[in-house]
């Protein structure tokens, strides 16, 4: 048995069955010239169509465009250049290779032909070997063009599939946003003469910030500001779980509350709540996220505030007399270390005082000068707000001023949230 591999034919000797060019249109007003060209083309295995004028050739191309066109330049009526331009204007999914047959060889005339859309030229009288070589060159170009078209088609189909997947994800994220918004059903609520107002602005559809409030009796209120590590879906899922742990609707699930002997609920100490949340999060297998938190409980009769700060930005007290002071010592985020102690802050609020809990979406916001807002910038921002505004109006104005100050290049890079407590005793 012979192991000899047949020699591969060079391009100039390959038949039409091996290439991209199969159907050839010959356009010439000379019947003799057409017969000469047609004879060679058929001998090489091509399917050949003839046309004696540019008009007749256009009619053929409109119904069934050929792979290759050999057209004389000088013809009565529509000449080769006009025919080439008209052919290029036809709508087509593929590409037809166009060779002009001419006795012209000057550079400006060649430029005219290329400008009209011709791919190649042959000087008459046409040499058979040169014609075959030019067809082979055109065949290679058409093959590359068709491969490129196939790849573009695959890319287009893939992009359509990706767009469909994106649309589905976007639809799910919109629904997830609605679910996350349901975790904060009230953005403002009065507790006697005092009031808690909330701001929640995710940087995407959903975010990792959470704010909330709840009360067990007319004299005490608890409220918080939470920022889960990371962004996007994973962080949002953690906030959904935390929303259950600190639910203002289902007290039995709320870790901030405990049962009294008479069957009622009372608010736990903030340091206890932080410890319970820490152990609960660490016990949830598969969760690598942690969160920072500022959580406070206020006695509405006396103004006594108890608060825990777990890695969250320093809460800000806005005194009635215009003074402002940051409080807290930082603390350790929740969900990082088991058994970590959380220190509790206690202080008395005076009538008219306001307590602002906020996420680092404020202080780490990048400004137009490239720097971050930080604590000093937050004070400056608050100073520009209308002093008569309270509650949600104040928070909305504060966020608007932040959006005006942030860098347009980077925009809103992190979720922005805040909880505002305004103290007015009975």
UniProtKB/TrEMBL annotation:
Which Pfam family is one of this chain's hits? Answer: SpoIIE
The protein's matches in SUPFAM superfamilies, at most eight in alphabetical order, are given as: CheY-like, PP2C-like
InterPro entries attached to this UniProt entry: Bact_Sigma-Reg, CheY-like_superfamily, PPM-type-like_dom_sf, PPM-type_phosphatase-like_dom, Sig_transdc_resp-reg_receiver
Domain of life where this protein originates: Bacteria
What sequence ranges are listed for the domain Response regulatory? 23-139
Q: Which residues carry this modification: 4-aspartylphosphate?
A: 72
CDD domains, A to Z: REC_OmpR
Keyword terms of this UniProt record? Hydrolase, Phosphoprotein
Q: Which PANTHER family match?
A: STAGE II SPORULATION PROTEIN E, STAGE II SPORULATION PROTEIN E-RELATED
Q: What is this protein called?
A: SpoIIE family protein phosphatase
